[in-house]
Amino acid sequence: MEDAPQRRRNLARQIWQSVFPRPIVARSDRERASLTRFTFLLHLRPVLLPARTLRWSHTFGLGGSSLVLVAVMAATGILTMLVYQPVPGVAFDSIVALQGQVAFGALVRAVHYWSANLLVVVVLLHLARVFLTGGYHGPRQFNWVIGSVLLLCVLANNFTGYLLPWDQLSYWAVTISTGMLEYVPWVGPLLQRVVRGGTEIGPETLINFYTVHTTIVPVLLIALMGFHFWRVRRAGGVVVPPARPADDDEGEKLHFLPHLLLREVAQTLVIVAIVVVLAAAFGAPLGDRANPGMSPNPAKAPWYFVGFQELLIHFHPLFAVVVIPMLAALGFVLLPYLTSDDEPSGAWFLSPTGRRTAGVAAVVALAVTPLLVVADEALGSGAAGWFTGGALPLAAIVAAVIGFAALVKARFGTTTNETVQAVVVLMAVAFAVLTLIGVWFRGEGMALTWPWNV
Amino acid sequence: MTEDRERQSRREAVDPRSDRRRVLRWLWGVLGLAALSELVWVGTSFLRPRRRATDDAGALFVAGPIHDFEPGSVTAFPAGKFYLVRLDDGGFLALDRTCTHLGCTVPWRADKGRFACPCHASTFDITGDVLGPPAPRPLDRYLVRIENDVVKVDLGRRVRRTGFNPSQVVRS
């Protein structure tokens, strides 16, 4: 090239080559490798990766799907911002206008809504995948912590987005959720006033939530996502599963181009298709305009918080709002540091024993949680003070969980990692059951009932 | 000779134990902390909730003449966000309509003779005292004044209480 600067090239070709200086169609592995390395977007991806990690059932592409959903949410969110007005009297009308007068407005809002809900599901599944394939041991320990903060960001943005339509559902869900802050010791009332921008939900609350939803959390989320992905690369990609007996690949490595890229593009298209179909078929709900004088009956939190709401019915608020979530979050973040690294990771459920004990834990949680809920409902112990309604039952539950862990260890001879896995599965399934009870089995006045009466 | 001295002085310059270095580093730390606390101070001051102009205005709410309210009745005042209760013995009590559990608006169920929160099923009797959990304390009350047989409620101050006692009731 250098020796022929005078060679006449037409302008279009010159511009094209300035953007894509290398052959865009790679013909050999070497060209593929250099294309991956030197193209800005592609260089974010590894050049070579172990063939076994490409197995779809190893990761289900959940991390990448989360990224796709975040991108979809950013696109639809920005469009919505062009129409939405964060002022109490006007907010609801602007949503109605978005859906009624703006071309494709209803679809854009529905896509935003469905990708938000799907994102919570996908992120939780991703978390479960990482946990159950042991992808959180060193050197990925700290990435688990970053992931936890990302989960928090996703939940925070779902929650703040919930208030914006200013309908009955959002107004009361946010009233209840911010009402919980009052029970935080010492700083609770102040915290509540800062979040609400006053003593009651009003214009200040809406602008607070709007700013957090559209600026603060997205910036944090995008920055942390970059950090998260970079740590994945630093750790040498996703955790490598052990070879199957049928495999004779001997740790073969494949090129990103085309093996991973094709899979990623396919997964992206599938996710976008799912979201658009859901949005087109079901739309996004919009209730009546918010009425501070009338709480709907029952008033339920968004589905991903219903498990916490169920705790509120059974525990003293100090425990339901502060103690239990804090303990759970702490244990959750510290998980990688509570287990040992020296066992092989990468296999689903660690081992056959791990699979069996995880199954036992799930069955126990499925059976015991509804019994506890019904028993507590019959006893009506939620009435009691912080000791009999909080500390005592919590201590009993913790003792029972420890007893369960000891029992599993004695009966199945589990390793530390397998025991921790069983305990986490127990608690996760119990929380899932609480969520299902809250969604399907709580009717008027939050009394227990059958799903067809809800 | 000079080379040696140069090396010597350079070593001193980078020696973290030298006094001058230690003082400067300490100074950096103090200044950094000062800057950080200023930042936190400015940030928290900025975020502190503002006072609403309407907070003080219209604190005294005129509910109406005494004979408008039957004994044993509960009247809702949506504009004032409170209930005016007239007990069976003719005494008045003004109750905030906000559930003390998590802030839902508590409707009066005349058929059952109690307040029932739709959110988490807390119930309160006609005096606002807790009948059923999970509400941790009775409904807040406002001070009631009766002047010239007209009931007035002071909405400027919401009073928390741990239970109902007859001194809270105002009689004409």
Explain briefly what this protein structure is.
The complex is a heterodimer of chains A (454) and B (172). Chain A has 454 residues and is an all-alpha fold.
Please outline the helices and strands.
The complex is a heterodimer of chains A (454) and B (172).
Chain A: H1 11-19, H2 29-38, E1 48-50, H3 56-59, H4 62-81, H5 88-100, H6 105-132, H7 141-163, H8 168-180, H9 188-196, H10 203-234, E2 253-255, H11 256-282, H12 306-314, H13 317-338, H14 352-379, H15 387-412, H16 416-440
Antiparallel strand pairs in A: 1-2
Chain B: H1 2-14, H2 19-47, E1 60-65, E2 73-77, E3 82-86, E4 92-96, E5 108-109, E6 114-116, E7 123-124, E8 130-132, E9 141-147, E10 150-159
Antiparallel strand pairs in B: 1-10, 2-3, 3-4, 4-9, 5-6, 6-7, 7-8, 9-10
> How much helicity do the residues of chain B have?
10-25%
Average pLDDT, all residues of chain A: 86
Unreliable residue runs of chain A: none
Strand coverage percent of chain B: 25-35%
Distance between the termini of chain B: 105 Å
Number of helices of chain A: 16
What is the number of E strands of chain B?
Answer: 10
**Rg on CA atoms of chain A, Å:** 25 Å
Give me the Rg of chain B, rounded: 31 Å
Task: Order the strands across the largest sheet of chain A as they lie in space.
Answer: 1-2
| Biggest protein-protein contact in the assembly | A-B, 36 and 25 residues
Instruction: Give, in order, the helices and strands of chain B.
Output: HHEEEEEEEEEE
**What amount of the residues of chain A lies in strands?**
under 5%
Low-confidence stretches of chain B: none
Task: Compute the number of helices of chain B.
Answer: 2
Structural class of chain B: alpha+beta
H/E topology pattern of chain A:
HHEHHHHHHHHEHHHHHH
Overall spatial form of chain A: globular
The beta-strand count of chain A equals 2
Explain how this protein is built:
The complex is a heterodimer of chains A (454) and B (172). Chain A has 16 helices and two strands. Chain A is mainly α. By secondary structure, chain B is α+β, with helices and mostly antiparallel strands. Chain B has two helices and ten strands. Chain B has a six-stranded antiparallel beta sheet, with no helix packed on it. A four-stranded antiparallel beta sheet of chain B has the order 5-6-7-8, with no helix packed on it. The longest helix of chain B has 29 residues, at 19-47. At the A-B interface, α8, α9 and α12 of A face loops of B.
